[in-house]
Amino acid sequence: MNTKRKAATVAVAGTAAGALGLGLLAMPAGADSAPELPEIGAQQLVGSVLKTEPPAMSGTATVDNELGLPAMPGVPALDAQSARVYYDGDGKGRVAMEQQSSELTYVLGDKEFWSYDSAEGTATRTALPADARDKHRSAKAAGADPTRTAAQVVDRLEESSTVSVDGTARVAGRAAYELVLTPKPDERTLVREVRVAVDAEKRLPLRMSVLTHGTTDPAFEIGFSEIEFGPQPERLFEFSPPEGTKVTESEAGRPDGPRGESGEEPQFRVTGDGWDTVVLTRVPQEMRDRAQGEGADVEGMLDRFGKPVQGEFGSGHVIETRIGTALITEDGRLAAGAVPEQVLRQALENR
Amino acid sequence: MTAHAEPVVAGPSQQEGPALAARTRGLRKTYGRTVAVDHVDLDVPEGAVLGMLGPNGSGKTTTIRMLLGLVQPTEGEVQLLGHTMPERAGDALPDVGALVEGPGFHPFLSGRENLLRLAAAEPRLTAAGIPPAVDDALERVGLSRAGGRRYRGYSLGMKQRLGLAGALLVPRRLVVLDEPTNGLDPAGTREIRSVIADLHHDGVTVLVSSHLLAEVEATCTHVAVLNEGALVAQGDLTELLESESAGLEVSTTDVTAAVEALRAAHLAARPTPDGVRVELTRAAAPDVIATLVGAGVPVYEARRSRTGLEDLFARLTQDSEEAPTWTS
Amino acid sequence: MDVMTKPARRTAPASRLVRAELRWIFRRPRTLAVLGLLALIPVIMGIALTVADPTAASSGGPPGNDGGNLLPAAAASVLVLPIAALTMTLQMLLPLAAAMSGADALAGETSTGTLRGWLLAPVGRAKLLLVKALGVATFTLAAAAVIAATGILTALVINGDGTLSTLSGTTLSIPDAVGRVALAVGWVTLQLWAVGAIALAISAFTEHPMVVLASVLGGVIVFTVLGSLDALSWLHPFLLTEVWWSLVDVLRDPVPAADLIDGGLKAACYLAIGLSLAYARLVSKDG
Predict the structure, then answer these.
(1) For chain A, what is the mean pLDDT?
(2) Do both A310 and A204 map to the same domain?
(3) How confident is the model at residue A104, as a pLDDT?
(4) Is residue A11 included in any domain, yes or no?
(5) Chain B touched by A5 (CB under 8 Å)
(6) Statement: residue A92 has pLDDT above 80
(7) Of A237 and B1, which is predicted with more confidence?
(8) What is the pLDDT of residues C63-77, one digit of tens each?
(9) A98 to C256: CB separation less than 8 angstroms, yes or no
(10) Is C218 touching B (CB cutoff 8 A)?
(11) Does pLDDT of B324 surpass 70?
(12) Distance between CA A291 and CA C171 in Å, rounded?
């Protein structure tokens, strides 16, 4: 073989192999065809999910949202976040939310719940009541006949939705049934359907997707991109804060979360049922004051992300995403739901 | 160029000739539409010092690079020390030393370190043999004392000599030097000449390319002339020069009578400032002299005219359109 | 003659060539300057972070800092500083260093005429590429190792003992931490081999080392820009630069291996492309 031809052969072969490799790596996992599984009824599937104790496993869960919400400055981007999840099959777990170069870690151990923020170097420890896990277990055990519970659940769901098993899918390399909830036609909602992929063998929900009208890509999806079942090392469910960490103690039953310092709990009220449920609440005055005090331009931000609206309820801003809408009035009332703006207006006006 | 000129070949024909250190047949190299080398059949006899002559851009360096396997010929074959190039470069090149297109060394290393790096790639040297070989080579080109200095600080002549040392790291059967005296002062040129003479004395074949004719005339036994990519003459230097000068210069006071007498004898003659010049194509020198003496023309002196290499070169390379047609 | 071996040997042993190549690389003032500069980066990072925020040296990180940044914790940790420095330099400086090495290896040697010397020795072209690739590989390993080493030293000097906490809040044993840094160095080196292989391929096509440097620099910038365009998300899995942030995963516990493995395999693909193009060009190239 002459040199030129040999050179060309090597160039083409090597480049093709490399490009092919990149192509294979770029292929999304689970793009392969839907697996063949024995038929199963919706009720039976729901029943088996309720019956199953989640087994010990580790995996990566990914949130993928295409809500159509603009990125907000200072607020971490919501799209395509991923978290590593570890579960020992017996009530202990660990979740690590990956940020680009830091991590939020939550560890649920035997007697304590820890949260740790590596960017801030802070940790919060919450002691759990000694019987917390037992209660949880017995509740589950006392869940009586899962078949009956399943029937009840499905009945409840069927008041507003059509529940069906619609084919199969492959999620994180595992065969899964697709459980589909479709809102009844008279439901006033933005949601077209919700699909839940259930592992065919372990009966663990692996993925939930929310689909809206007019598009085939889910508006919101949370699911495992990788999952592996099997015992996890015990050390994952213990936590001792690293040297130099600021540790805060928190009361039981109140894992850290935004709380009004005055202790004033926001009041929630719900109107409607099924898919057109609307949650009504009032943004605590103190929170608004604080935002103002910190120099956050609340009005400017609302102007940017929402559009001003007026009606019998007064005036305010409406923020729309593909699966939900929120309406905030000037006087701090807030209505939100997976519904179009019109439903929120009615909810506010009918109070 | 449609027809290829038959180059001048002096000396015995190739078949029963001496072994060849390098040989090309139908060698051709084109770069796009430019023909750099065109059907060159070069013979480098073993033991010869062959001077490759040609104006700039005549294809000397390209031919040498193809000989050494650096460039893949478009057409034709190359034999170097009996091995086909570039396929069998591994068999041929260890016995070949070369300095092509000027010396190439790293400026931040000393001359000696540069040679050590080059010597590491010499198949004929053992690891232990490298340092002495480098020192010998430096000694040979007179750089022993400057060996520790950085190459960056070398003069043009020193660089050239270091390049020569690189070609002479191990005893060679063939040494190829492309313009070895480039940039050298007269003393440096003499040194190179003496190195070439030594190599010749040791039976090493040397191929030197040059555009300096005096250089080639002084050092070479053989010559090959390239013009516009074609080989227009090659062979033993002395024979080539003689074949070219088939004329007799006769000094006489009676030029008219001399020309008349010769023309009467059907001999081509033309007057020169101090006599006549007679072409020796039809008659031998004694016949010419006898004719003149018979006609009563006073002959003071008669000698074979010897044109220098310069004349030969000028004739071969100036009118390339009409390639020379003479043969031996 | 005692310096002669059997005439049967047609080419010098590869090990000897590699040694000569390494001597050449590491004797070169430019190489040493680049390594020195890279060695300084963790020192500068460590000092800057300590000066900017004295609490960083004693506590895990300053409170109230806007999250999402590795840097605040870096100065404090013998584990984090080397990896933060590697992550930072991997975005630009290390690829440039790899490109420089690849540029010198073929284009630079062609321009000084020194490549011809080895080709005439003779060194076969495949072997030449092997030696050159090993040279680039060694240099990039040295570059990554130097950053890790000065990173560890700097953190030790600033911090005294050294905390070995991961982003997940666990504390590593010393061998484990050393293993993590070694893993990071190895992974970065693999990425740099990929860049170096592409640089060698470009290097084989030109005799101007600057062309190689400019192409790699341009390539890294273009890849980074493409990687930041959401509209081109289908292209992102093909961009080598996109995997470079995964290095941070080394600091998580347990190490999420998926992205690191994916990045390693992508680097291997680029390596195959680069080396095969470099080989193809080198064997057909005029010397």
Answers:
(1) 78
(2) no
(3) 85
(4) no
(5) no
(6) yes
(7) A237
(8) 333 333 555 556 667
(9) yes
(10) no
(11) no
(12) 37
- Tell me the per-residue pLDDT of C212-260, one tens digit each, with 9 for 90 and over: 999 999 999 999 999 888 788 888 888 889 889 888 888 888 888 888 9
Of the candidates A217, A250, A283, which is a domain's last residue? A250
Residue A132 in domain: yes
Q: Kindly report each contact of residues A218-221 with a partner whose C-beta sits within 8 Å and lies 24 or more positions away, as own/partner.
A: A218/A64, A218/A66, A219/A65, A219/A66, A219/A67, A219/A68, A219/A321, A219/A322, A219/A323, A220/A63, A220/A64, A220/A65, A220/A66, A220/A67, A220/A322, A220/A323, A221/A62, A221/A63, A221/A64, A221/A65
Look up the ipTM and state it. Answer: 0.83
Question: Which positions in chain B touch A4 (Cβ < 8 Å)?
Answer: 72
Q: Do C121 and B121 touch (CB under 8 A)?
A: yes
Search chain A and give the residue with CA nearest C84.
Answer: A101
Smallest CA–CA separation between B136 and chain C, in Å?
12
Q: Does residue B161 carry a pLDDT above 80?
A: yes
Flag the least confident range among A215-219, B72-76, B245-249.
B245-249
User: Domain for residue A77, yes or no?
Assistant: yes
Residues A149 and A231 occupy one common structural domain:
yes
Which residues of chain A are within 8 Å of residue C265 when distances are taken between CB atoms?
21, 25
Q: Chain B within 8 Å of C18 (Cβ-Cβ)?
A: no
Q: Does A59 share its domain with A162?
A: yes
* Share above pLDDT 70 across residues of chain C, in percent, rounded to a whole number: 87
Residues A276 and A241 in one domain: no
Per residue in A257-273, pLDDT tens? Answer: 444 444 455 577 787 77
Q: Note whether A207 and A284 are same-domain residues.
A: no
Is the CB of B124 less than 8 angstroms away from the CB of C4? yes
The CATH number assigned to the domain holding A289 equals 3.30.310
* Domain boundary pick from A201, A222, A250: A250
Residue C11 tokens read as: 């080419």
Kindly state whether residues A62 and A154 are assigned to the same domain: yes
Are A68 and A205 within one domain? yes
The per-residue pLDDT for A73 is 45
Give residue B2's pLDDT band: very low, low, confident or very high (50, 70, 90): very low
Per CB-CB distance under 8 Å, the chain A contacts of B86 are 3
Structural domain tally of chain A?
2
Chain B residues with beta carbon closer than 8 angstroms to that of C2: 129
| pLDDT single digits (tens) B204-239 | 999 998 877 777 878 888 988 888 888 888 888 877
Please, which residues 97-126 of chain C have a Cβ atom closer than 8 Å to chain B? 112-124
In total, the C-beta contacts within 8 angstroms joining chain B to chain C are 112
Residues A126-157: pLDDT tens digits?
Answer: 888 766 555 555 544 545 566 777 777 778 87
Binding-site residues on chain B for chain C (CB distance < 8 A): 65, 68-72, 89-91, 93-94, 96, 98, 100-109, 113, 116-118, 120-129, 132-133, 166, 170-171
Search chain B and give the residue with CA nearest C18.
B120
Can you tell me which residue has the tokens 């390693």? Answer: C264
DSSP string, C151-211: HHHHHHHHHTT-B-B-TTS-B--HHHHHHHHHHHHHHHHHHHHHHHHHHHHHHHH-S-HHH
Q: What is the pLDDT of residue A322?
A: 79
* Partner-chain contact C283 A6, CB within 8 Å: yes
The answer to whether B129 contacts C23, with C-beta atoms less than 8 Å apart, is no
Q: Which domain holds residue A161?
A: 42-250
- DSSP H stretches of helix in chain C: 14-27, 29-52, 55-58, 71-74, 80-90, 93-103, 109-112, 114-120, 125-159, 174-205, 209-228, 257-284
Cross-chain Cβ contact B70/C116 below 8 Å: yes
A156 in a structural domain:
yes
Separation in Å, CA A237 to CA A157, C169, C181: 35, 12, 25
Regarding whether A202 and A285 lie in a shared domain, the answer is no
Contacts 24+ apart (CB under 8 A), A258-262: A258/A287, A260/A284, A260/A286, A260/A287, A261/A286, A262/A286
Domains present along chain B, CATH in parentheses? 18-240 (3.40.50.300), 246-304 (3.30.70)
Query: Given this model, what pLDDT does residue C53 score?
Result: 60
The answer for C 58-117 residues in CB contact with A (under 8 A) is 58-70, 72-73, 76, 84, 87
The CATH number that applies at residue A124 is 2.50.20.10
